[in-house]
């Protein structure tokens, strides 16, 4: 069972839900949910749906935090329409937002989760989060290189 699968299974057990209950809520088959629990990490769009249905954070499902509480209104959320005006919005995000390619990157649920984690992290940034930002930089560089060809 994967880390995410174990977390999903535990949440279902804690709430007295069957795998079929989650499958119905997600609009997928019981076999699909069973695969997610046993060994297969769902696609990022499905992780977002699962988090919403189970009322837990995406970070919790990915094992980036042990706090299952999802981010609520009032906290910075790069997926919110008004994220740029939020007082906790990191200045770096506002600067990156000037790049038209950044919006495409922000549309990825896992990326939003990483950016949210960085925004809330106090102290020295975690290595994994910095690596994801470097991945974004490479993504932009590749797009620029293709434009120059």
Largest sheet: number of strands, sense, barrel closure: none
Gross morphology is elongated
The fraction of residues in strands falls at: under 5%
Number of helices: 9
Integer-rounded radius of gyration? 17 Å
Ends: how far apart? 45 Å
Helix content: 55-70%
Show unreliable segments: none
Order of helices and strands: HHHHHHHHH
Mean model confidence by pLDDT: 77
Structural class: mainly alpha
Can you count the beta strands?
Answer: 0
Give me a quick take on this structure:
With 149 residues, the chain is mainly α. The chain contains nine helices and no strands. Helix content is 62%, strand content 0%.
Which tags fit this structure?
elongated; 149 residues; mainly alpha
Overall description:
The model has no long low-confidence stretch (mean pLDDT 77). This protein has 9 helices and no strands. Helix 1 (3-15) crosses helix 3 (30-38) and helix 2 (19-26) packs across helix 3 (30-38). The longest helix is centred in the C-terminal third of the chain and has 22 residues, at 127-148. It is 62% helix and 0% strand.
């Amino acid at each position: 069972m994967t880390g995410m699968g174990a977390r999903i299974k535990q949440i279902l057990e804690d709430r007295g839900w069957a795998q079929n209950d989650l499958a119905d809520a997600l609009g997928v088959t019981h076999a699909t949910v069973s695969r997610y629990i046993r060994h297969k990490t769902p696609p990022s769009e499905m992780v977002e749906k699962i988090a919403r249905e189970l009322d837990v954070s995406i970070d919790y499902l990915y094992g980036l935090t042990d706090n299952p509480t999802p981010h609520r209104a009032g906290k910075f959320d790069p997926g919110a329409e008004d994220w740029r005006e939020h007082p906790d919005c990191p200045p770096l995000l506002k600067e990156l937002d000037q790049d038209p390619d950044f919006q495409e990157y922000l549309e990825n649920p896992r990326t939003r989760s990483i950016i949210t984690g960085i925004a809330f992290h106090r102290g020295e940034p975690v290595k994994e989060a910095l690596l994801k930002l470097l991945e974004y930089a490479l993504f932009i560089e590749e797009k620029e290189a293709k434009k120059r060809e």
